[in-house]
Design goal:
Blueprint: E1 6-8, H1 10-16, E2 28-33, E3 38-44, H2 64-81, E4 90-102, E5 111-122, E6 125-134, E7 137-150
Antiparallel strand pairs: 1-2, 2-3, 3-5, 4-7, 5-6, 6-7
């Protein structure tokens, strides 16, 4: 099985995910542990993010749906980097979010840590649990699912 200390830098992330600025929401993966079925990554939240312009002027707060998207992207990186899966020509699409709770705002200057675990697979559907934290404090948590589809259907 793969080493528990696998890290993924931004260049490799760009090669794995189809997202690009401003919707690429993972800056680095610090650990992938295939035995524990988990991934830890982060997003550096800067005042230059385009969504802060309108959410909210004078009181910038990262939209909760983008926190969820960052968690889903981290989950996608776990699956797409798995050494035992052949995912050539596949795309990982967000399918659902359940039991999502937002606990604290995420603001410019925060480093948003993304931890996704408990990956479960049934056919082409993946389910996972996710927590986003800032300074060790939970910002958001929930359960997500995503579907693996062929890229050529688009």
């Amino acid at each position: 099985m793969a080493d528990a200390a696998v890290a993924i830098d931004i260049q490799r992330i760009l090669g794995m995910l189809p997202h690009r600025y401003p919707f690429l929401l993972v800056d680095r993966v610090t650990e992938v542990d295939y035995e524990a079925r988990s991934i830890t990554a982060y997003k550096n939240v800067t005042v230059n993010e385009p969504f802060f312009q309108g959410h909210f002027p004078g009181l910038p707060v990262m939209p909760g749906v983008l926190i969820m998207e960052a968690l889903a992207q981290a989950g996608g990186l776990y699956v797409l980097s798995h050494p035992e899966l052949d995912l050539n020509g596949k795309l990982f699409l967000f399918a659902s979010a359940d039991k999502v709770k937002f606990r604290r705002p995420v603001v410019p200057g925060d480093q948003l840590f993304l931890h996704v675990s408990d990956f479960r697979r049934k056919m082409t559907l993946w389910k996972m649990s996710a927590v986003a934290k800032v300074n060790g404090e939970t910002a958001a948590a929930g359960e997500f699912s995503a579907a693996m589809v062929n890229k050529e259907i688009f």
